[in-house]
Amino acid sequence: MTTSTRERGDPVNAEQRDAEFLAELLEALPSLVAFVDRDERTRYVNRAVRVWIGREPEDCVGMTLREFLGDDAYALVRDHVAAASAGRRQSFRRATVLPGGEVVHALTEYVPRWREGRPDGFTVLVTDVTGQERAELALAEDQLLVRELRSRSRTAATLTDDVLQELFAISLHLERLRRFPEEAWTVADKAIGSLSGTIETLRSTVKHLVADVERRPPEPGGGRDG
């Protein structure tokens, strides 16, 4: 009676199955995954390259990184490439135009591979983080709005205190007018003066608040949608 290789748990076949599973996983990722050797030549690239670069995977293998990216794009990442080749992990974001014309925000990572204590090429991982960028922008706008509201709240609180003080002073003048009719005109003048000052304070504060609103830049496109 014979025992199949699968039943015996043959380690060679197990390793092969693991390698096949890993390859399938890499090919299914929406992120661009590539491996660049010490000579800056592309040795592996997954199917996502069709979306990101507009090339077929088999056409990319053996290309230099400059050929793979194009001169302009390579110039933007040259320093990161040099650092990764020297063994320093790199992570950076930038806007990227896809072959179809869509602009996305990409997070690019270069992860050095080490062999015998020395850097030996690096893995490239490029991920679309456009949604995250938009969320961070929206959060920053919300934080700015909160700061503005707090500032206006403090202004309103100060205004309220000033107005209350002025109104209290006016009430004292009017009470004096009730008690001492002979001083009516003098007291009335003081009350009118206080009231005029209060009105001017209100006018100045409202003008200041309106100016704040007018200085605030409009949101792009009239909102955050899209």
**How confident is the prediction overall: mean pLDDT?**
77
Could you estimate the helical fraction of the residues in percent?
55-70%
Tally of discrete structural domains: 2
Please give the CATH architecture of the largest domain: 2-Layer Sandwich
Assign the structural class, choosing from mainly alpha, mainly beta, alpha/beta, alpha+beta, or little secondary structure. Answer: alpha+beta
Tally of separate helices: 8
Q: Roughly what fraction of the amino acids lie in strands?
A: 15-25%
CATH class of the largest domain: Alpha Beta
- End-to-end Cα distance: 67 Å
Major beta sheet, strand line-up: 2-1-5-4-3
Gross morphology is rod-shaped
Order of helices and strands: HHEEHHHHEEEHH
Q: What Rg do the Cα atoms give?
A: 35 Å
Low-confidence stretches: 1-7, 220-226
What does this entry look like structurally?
Residues 1-7 and 220-226 have low confidence and may be disordered. A hairpin with a 5-residue loop joins strand 1 and strand 2 (42-45). A five-stranded antiparallel β-sheet has the order 2-1-5-4-3, with helices on both faces. It folds into two domains: 28-128, PAS domain (Beta-Lactamase); 133-222. It is built from eight helices and five strands, in the order H-H-E-E-H-H-H-H-E-E-E-H-H. Helix 7 runs antiparallel to helix 8. The chain is rod-shaped and about 110 Å long. By secondary structure, the protein is α+β, with helices and mostly antiparallel strands.
